[in-house]
Amino acid sequence: MFSTKSFGAGLAATIFTLSGAIGSLTASAADTFVTIGTGGITGVYYPTGGAICRLVNKGRKEHGVRCSVESTGGSVYNINTIRAGELDLGVAQSDWQYHAYNGTGKEAFIKAGPFEDLRAVFSVHAEPVSLVARADSGIKHISDLVGKRVNIGNAGSGTEATWNVLWGAMGHTNDDLKLAAQMKSSETPGALCDNKIDAFFWLVGNPSALNKEAATTCDVVFVEVNGEAVDQLVADNAFYRTATIPGGMYRGNDDDTPTFGVGATFVSSTAVEENVVYQIVKAVFDNFDDFKKLHPAFAHLKESEMISDALSAPLHDGAAKYYKERGWL
Ligand code: GLU
Description:
Layout: H1 5-21, E1 32-37, H2 45-58, H3 60-63, E2 65-70, H4 75-83, E3 89-93, H5 94-102, H6 107-112, E4 118-134, E5 149-151, H7 158-169, E6 179-181, H8 188-193, E7 199-203, H9 209-217, E8 220-222, H10 228-236, E9 241-245, E10 257-269, H11 274-285, H12 288-293, H13 303-306, H14 317-325
Parallel strand pairs: 1-2, 1-3, 5-6, 5-7
Antiparallel strand pairs: 3-10, 4-7, 4-8, 4-10, 9-10
Helix pairs in contact: 2-11, 11-14
Bound molecules: glutamic acid (GLU).
């Protein structure tokens, strides 16, 4: 379903090199092509990958790293595909970074065992749970989802994996829903407004184009995601925290909505060369003011928090090298 562009990029590198030899293209044999796995195009992962690549590609003549972005199914897909060596880097929720590194949290990760070569690069924006319901659905709290039609996240998303943890912690299974839909995120605002589902659940930075699309297309409410099970999850796990979706950000959400969430993190593996990750990190942090302007969800990012928060896997050597140069480690 999703193409493995790092494979295609390798092919492109070969073609460029051959063409370079006959003088028609300028890319040199030293060019390294990297692909970042992201998420659905109306989420925040996709523009995050785009922002990183934009800064990397500006300096590609000097450092030879060429960056491209792939739209994918999200966190779990990105981690699994990095593990398979078919993606170089990816954006992933902090909870699934933790679980992949430790071989915990979901059956496939337990079966595969700890992903010891997983490496953290930096963390990005906060990702609170957005639970968006039709205004006429009567849903006011996450516990009201029993018997409703809910999009719980597509297979391969961090969203679906975290839904299963939360709904399980609340004492439920998906059989307690009338429908547990698994559409990809970009399809959910249309499905909600066409009354095919009552609500969609997902973890995403704010503001997101997708939440805006839902809120401006039909009458929606942002639903509270709190209570005992959430408190317990936050108390037991460093990667969860309570959060709010600020009132006034989306139509239908005039007041703050209490919820909980994780952090978006940027990850890679030991298979990616130190200098490549170094150049990517340098492109972002040497141009940090530009980076923050590339998406409104980045407005409040602070460098120090990005290299200390929500990172469970060891730092990639190339990232650590840059942070040491800046005196941050
Ligand atoms: N956190 C979501 C996931 O991994 C993706 C969010 C986004 O695309 O911005 O499923």
